[in-house]
Amino acid sequence: MLFLCLRFPLLGFDALPPNEKPPADGPAALHDKGRIVLCNAQAQQQGVEAEQSLSTALSIAPGLVCVAQQAEAEARHLHNLALWAYRFSGEVSLSPPNGILLELSRSLRLFKSLDQLYRRLVAAFRQRGLVFHTGLAHTPLAAELLSLSNTPVKHTANRQGELKHSALQQLLAALPSHLLPLPPRQLEALNNMGLRRLGDVQRLPLAELRSRFGKALPDLLERMNGRCHDPRPLFTVAEEFHSERQFDGGLHSKEQLRFPVSALLSELESYLQRRLLLNRELHWQLLYLDGNREDWIMPLSHRVFRRRSLIDLVMLGLEQRPLQGPVEMLTLHCKQFLPLNQGSNELFNDEQALLDQQEALTTILDKLRLRLGDDCLQQLHLQNNHLPEFSQQLRVFNPADHSPVSHHPAPPVGLRPSWLLPAPAPLSQRDGQLYYQGALHLLQGPERIDSHWWQQRQVRDYYIAQREDHSLCWLFKDCLSQRWYLHGFFG
Amino acid sequence: MPKPRLQQLMSERQLWHARGAGVARRNTQHSVSSGFAALDQALHLGGWPVHGSTELLCSQSGIGELELVLPSLAERSRQRPVLWLNPPHLPFAPALEQHNLSCHQHYVLRCTTPREQLWAAEELLRSGAFSSLLSWFDGRPLQDRQLRRLHLAAREGNCWHLHFRDIRCQPQTSPAPLRLSLSASSQHLHVEVFKQSGGHAGQRLQLPRPASLLWQQQPASSWPVYRQAPRRRLNLVASSRPEGALQRLPLGLDTLPRPGTPH
C-alpha cells in the first residue's frame, strides 16, 4: 500500500470568496471566536501564531488583516480538491481540516511510475496556484503525519514508487511528538516526560504506554506502523456538480475567460466520467466586480461529452452576450443528468456512420441554437389534412423527441407543387385574364377541395397554369368569394 | 523538325492534356446519378458531384429547377438529411413524398441577416451532418472568397452544396466546379452546363417537363357533346329525373382528349 497525503496549509485563505480575500503581499490571518486559526508567512514573521487571541495578534502586528474563518467554504473547497484528485486514484479520502489522502499503489501502472504521476499532480496544482505539502508512506496515518512536516516524496520512495523503508522509519522517528492527534493533556504529558520525538515514544514498550496513556496512544502507533487496520471513509462524488473559478482583479475580455471555461469543463468531464452520466445543460454564473450576478443556462443536446467542441460552443455563446464589466468569478453548476448510454463500437461501419452522423447533427444544432435562437431549425412533417397549407407542418427540431415517424399519413393523389407559398397570393383579373407578374393560362383543372365545414368552410378549385415566362403555377379559385389566388409553383 | 518540338510541348506542364485530365474519371465513386440520362451523359463525372458546390442559375421559380435535383436528393437523403437554407417559398412535403423523398429527412433553416446565413451555411456544410444543403442567398451576390469558403467547407463535410443563384451572376467567376444555367420554354427545361471539371463545358440540353403537368385541357366549347339528343325524347322522360340528361355530359376527366392533341 502506498498512501499520499496532500495537505493545503493555506486552504482557509483559498476558500474565501474573492471580495473578502486579504491582499497577498501583506500579513493576514483567519480568526474564529476571537482566536487566530491560520496566518500567512508574513504574519508569522511578525510573530503572529495560531491560538493567539485576536487582540494579542493585532497588538504584535498592527498591519494584520484579520478575516473570519468560513468553515463551510473550506469544506466545499476541500471537497472540490478531492474531486479533482479522484482522477489520480480510485481511493480518495478526506483528511479534515485541510488534507486529502490518496491510495496510489493501484494507480502506478496506469501512470507508468510514481515519478510521472507526481509530476502531473504537481503541474496541476502549480497551474491553480495552490500551496501544498506532501507526505508519502505505507499507512494513512504515517502519510498524514509526514505531510504535517512537509516531507518531499522523493525522501520516502524511489521513482518507481517503491518505499525506502529505513528512510521512512528514520523520518517518522524524527517527527516531533506534538504532531500526534491526541488530546492536549496527553500531548502535555508526553512533553513533560521528555518524549519530544516520535522515535522516543516508539522505543517504549506498548504495554507501558497503555497503562500510562490509555488505549489511544498505542492504537495510534499500531495504525501508524501498519500493524493494525486503519479504514478511512472513502470520498464519494456529490449528486450535483458545482465548481467555480475566481479572478483577482477581474477579467475584462471574453477571450480571457477561455482558460477558466476550459478548466471548469474538464472538471465537469471527470465528474461525469466518474458517475457515468451526461449533462443536459450548463448553468453558468458570472459574478461581476460590482457585485452583479448574471445567470446563463445553456441547453445541450449532445450524446457524448466532448470538451473541445463544448469550449467552442461556450465561447460562441459568450460572443453573443455582452459582459457587463470585469468578471470576478465564474461558476459552473449542473444538476440535471441523464444516464450515459455506454457507446459500444459497432461491428459494421454503417451503424458507426449513423451514430457519427447523429452526433454531428446534435453538435451543429447546439451551435445554431446558440447563435440563431432556439427555434431556428425546423423539420418538415406531413399532416393528415386536405387543405394544402395544413397538410404539412414545420416543427421545431428536437433531437430528444424520438418518435418522428410514429404515424405517417399517405400523400395525396393529385398533382402537388414542390413550392408552396407561405400564404396564398391574390391574383389580379383583367378582361377575363388572370395576372400574377405576367399573364396566366390555365392548363388543367379543377381539382376541388372542400373541407373545414365544421370551422370555416373552404371550397377551392385548384388549377395548374402556365405563366408567360413558362413557369408552372398552382392556382385556386375560392368558390365562396369567387376570387383567384396563387398557391404554389411546380419547381 | 516538328516532332521534337511537339515532344517538348507535351512535356511542358503548361499544356493541358485532354486525354489524361479525367474524361475517363466517369465512375460512381465521385458522382450520384441525376436521374436524367441526358444530363448524366453531359456531365463528365457521370452525374452530380458527391460533394462541393454546384451552382444552379435561374431567375424564377416554377420552371422545373427542383425536379432537376429531386431524384438525386431522394438518393442522398436515405443516409443523411437535407437542409434548405432560406428557400424562397416553403418546400411542400406532400410533393416531396410524391417524389419518393421522406419529408422528415428535410430541415428548413431561416436566417435573417446575410452574415448569419453565411456563418450558418459554412458551419452546416462543414458539420458533416447533412448530405445536401440547398441555399438561396438574397441581397448582394457573394464574393469570390465567400464562395470558395463554402465550397471548401462542403468538401470537408462531404456535403453537396446546391447553390441557387440569380441568372445575372453568370458572368461572375466562381470557384464552384460545376455551374449550370436554367431557363424555360413552354414544354422543356433548358440546361446549359457552362462550367464543369474534367473536360469541356458548353453542353446544352432540353429536359421535358412531366407530361402530367402540361396536359392541356380543351376549352369546354370544343368538348364532344351528344348533339342529337332529340327534344321529343327528353320530354318523354319523367320530369322528376332531370339529372338523367346531365349524366350524358362528359364530366369525367378520362373522356377528355389526351395530351399533345392540338386544340
UniProtKB/TrEMBL annotation, chain A:
Keywords per UniProt: DNA damage
Keyword DNA damage in annotation: yes
InterPro entries associated with the record: DNA/RNA_pol_sf (IPR043502), SulA_CellDiv_inhibitor (IPR050356), UmuC (IPR001126)
Domain annotation UmuC: ranges: 29-147
Top-level taxon of origin: Bacteria
Stored PANTHER family: BLR3025 PROTEIN (PTHR35369:SF2), BLR3025 PROTEIN-RELATED (PTHR35369)
Name of the protein in its database record: DNA polymerase Y family protein
Organism, as annotated: Spongiibacter thalassae
Automatic annotation (TrEMBL), chain B:
Coiled-coil annotated spans: none
InterPro entries per the UniProt record, alphabetical: ImuA_translesion, P-loop_NTPase, UCP037290
Database matches in NCBIfam families: ImuA_translesion (NF033429)
Name used for this protein in its record: Translesion DNA synthesis-associated protein ImuA
Originating organism: Spongiibacter thalassae
Phylogenetic lineage: Bacteria, Pseudomonadati, Pseudomonadota, Gammaproteobacteria, Cellvibrionales
Primary gene name: imuA
